[in-house]
Amino acid sequence: MAKIIGRKEEQKELQRLYESDNPEFVAVYGRRRVGKTFLIREMFRDNLTFYHTGLSVYDDGSKVSTEEQLRHFYHSLQMHDSDADHAPKSWMEAMYMLEELLMKLDNGSRQVVFIDELPWLDTPRSHFITALEAFWNGWGTGRDNLMLIVCGSAASWMIKNLINNTGGLYNRITYEIKLSPFNLCETEEYLRSRQITASRYEIAMAYMAFGGIPYYLSYFQKGLSISQNIDLLFFDRKAKLRMEFKRLFTSLYKYPEKYEKIINILSTRHYGYTREELAKILDIPLGGSFSDILNALAASDFIIAYKPIDAKKGETLYKLVDPFCRFYMYFADKALLGDSQYWLHNVNSPNVMSWSGIAFEELCIMHTEQIKRKLGIAAVRTSESSYTLRGDDHYDGIQCDLVIERGDRVVNLCEMKFSQGEYEITKSYDVTLRHRINAIMSRLKSTQSLQLTFITTFGVKRNMYSGIVQSEVTLDDLFV
């Protein structure tokens, strides 16, 4: 069995469910390439009674028919020693065949049935959900030794049709797992398991480019630096990830260009756009289909919806948070220039440094729990958001990407700075910081105090201006 990196809570819960004396219906979802299939197959490699994965509906640009999905399901039945002598004509018949197979193989021990990429089976007019309801409600719930695990990268489908189902599968899911990308600590552990040597600065650079996506990290080659690997995976003429952005959406959505356009727009403004702004730019109505697209992107962790601390009543912003999508939007045009070593040639260029600053801020926001742990407030009730102060007669506009409001009435204003050495606060930046602090303090409650927190790669350089910093978090603190 391959070593499973991280996923400790998920493994613990899956083992508990496996050992229970009740029928279990487990839904696992998350962004494509995040490692859902690997987790389940490695956890139950020797205990899978039946395994099937749906055929990709959109990968090659053509639609897969219900008949093709059923023939593929029949093949899986045969591989597991089914007595069925023909391909099912409907999903209802397919589920009857699965019931017969499981009864044939039943020896009293736990039976684990794993159906991967379940949303792909739900082709138009296939009545798949009705058949799944019949299988679970009419048969599965009476089998105390049955554990049904279903996976899907189309997270919005999983949430709508299974977890929040209002029909026959209402409240039938006994446990749900949303699998998230690796954090920095898990990314470091994964690379080390593959004997890839890199400093934490380099690992952070890799994370800022590709995120904590195991599938992307699996392509990193031992003996190459992180910069060389970035070139190999994205800028080389045969780069494996150059077309990944297109595949992400064409494999999940019927009209991928709509999703790509929203990602493209969100990449142009760091703090995001409102629904109204997005709809206006796209020239589409603020209807249900538009909401479905935003919800689908959020469910798969490509974007987030959040309310800034100073937001107007009812105002919600949508923001791009997927590192790979941001990296692609920033450098896709550079990948077409033909320089297969673009990253090595430009790693210290203003263009890359500009991207690094934004990407590092996103990395920090993804590791807010680690930041709170370093600040000693992990057990304190907090809320995290951005803070946008629009310009007025007294202040210019101010954008702060991470503000932590604490239950002990302290507010941490977090400045995040990516640099190759200690970060030096200059005289002019000191003026900016004091202006920012005064502007925000004027808007806090009288019972609140403000602390300036610097989150940097290697700390703040001590000089006559560094005393303004109340607390520090370094890159090493994020690797916990």
What is the global morphology? globular
Largest sheet features: 5 strands, parallel
Strand order of the largest sheet: 2-3-4-1-5
Kindly name the structural category: alpha/beta
Radius of gyration, rounded?
A: 25 Å
> Average pLDDT value?
93
Poorly predicted runs are none
Share of helix among residues? 40-55%
How far the N terminus sits from the C terminus, by CA atoms, comes to 26 Å
Beta-strand residue fraction: 15-25%
Structure overview:
It is a single chain. With 480 residues, this protein is of the alpha/beta class. The chain is built from 20 helices and 13 strands. The protein has helices at 8-19, 36-43, 66-79, 91-105, 128-138, 155-163, 184-193, 200-210, 214-217, 226-235, 244-250, 256-266, 275-282, 288-299, 323-335, 342-346, 350-366, 368-375, 427-441, 475-478, and strands at 24-29, 48-53, 111-116, 146-152, 175-178, 273-274, 303-306, 317-320, 382-389, 398-406, 410-417, 449-456, 471-474. The strands form three sheets. Strands 2-3-4-1-5 form a five-stranded parallel beta sheet, with helices on both faces. Strands 9-10-11-12-13 form a five-stranded mixed beta sheet. A three-stranded antiparallel beta sheet has the order 6-8-7. Helix 4 runs parallel beside helix 5 (128-138), helix 6 crosses helix 14 and helix 15 (323-335) packs antiparallel against helix 17 (350-366). The two termini are 26 Å apart. The model has no long low-confidence stretch (mean pLDDT 93).
